[in-house]
Amino acid sequence: MPSIHRVVPFEGIDNARFGMTPEQLADILGDADEVRHNRILEDTAERRGATEYVFHDGVLSEIVAYRPGRGKAIREQLDGARYAPVFYDDIEILDEQGFEMLRAREQTKEGIGGHSVLFPELGLLVTGFGKRVPEGAYATVFQREQLDHFEILLDV
């Protein structure tokens, strides 16, 4: 597992690229710590450390990196996994100062209640800031084709 993650906008994180199959991902990252199938969303999430790789129709389409905090549900879901800091352009995204620095620099759209911030030019959604700091946060990196979907999620 990588000790840090680097976001490549609309392409993935590190060497994990959207469109990869589970087998291709396993070739570069090794076996998953946990695999969950969601029959309602019709996707599969493979967890490696504190990062989930989400597959739709058999190919990688989203990557979710969690920063464990005080939230019991996330801690249990991650089963004590170590957090790999997430960086874009040498800014640590899930660090409060880094998040504010990126937010001041990039175009954003804020969700209802201020708990989610979309960075539409980066293919990145950060959730868990606002009133919940420092209880934990997570970053979702996604493909350009999913931008409309994540913009709609902000209003829910």
Overview of the molecule:
There is one protein chain. The chain has 156 residues and is α+β, with helices and mostly antiparallel strands. The protein has one domain (5-154). 21% of the residues lie in helices and 35% in strands. The protein is built from four helices and 13 strands. The protein has helices spanning 22-29, 72-78, 96-105, 147-154; strands at 5-8, 12-13, 16-17, 34-38, 43-48, 51-56, 59-67, 86-88, 91-92, 109-110, 116-119, 124-127, 137-142. The strands form two sheets. It has an eight-stranded antiparallel β-sheet with strand order 4-5-6-7-13-12-11-10, with helices on both faces. A five-stranded mixed β-sheet has the order 3-2-1-8-9. The protein is globular. The termini are far apart. The model has no long low-confidence stretch (mean pLDDT 87).
What topology emerges from the helices and strands here?
Blueprint: E1 5-8, E2 12-13, E3 16-17, H1 22-29, E4 34-38, E5 43-48, E6 51-56, E7 59-67, H2 72-78, E8 86-88, E9 91-92, H3 96-105, E10 109-110, E11 116-119, E12 124-127, E13 137-142, H4 147-154
Describe the structure concisely.
This protein is of the alpha+beta class and 156 residues long.
Q: What would you call the structural class?
A: alpha+beta
Largest sheet: 8 strands, antiparallel
Number of domains: 1
Q: Give the topology string: H per helix, E per strand.
A: EEEHEEEEHEEHEEEEH
What coarse outline follows from CA principal-axis ratios? globular
Number of helical elements: 4
The end-to-end distance, rounded to whole angstroms, is 34 Å
> Could you name the ranges where pLDDT drops below 50 across 5 or more consecutive residues?
none
Identify the strand order in the major beta sheet.
4-5-6-7-13-12-11-10
Number of strands: 13
Which strand-content bin applies to the residues?
Answer: 35-45%
What is the average of the pLDDT values? 87
**Estimated helix fraction:** 10-25%
Supply Rg. 15 Å
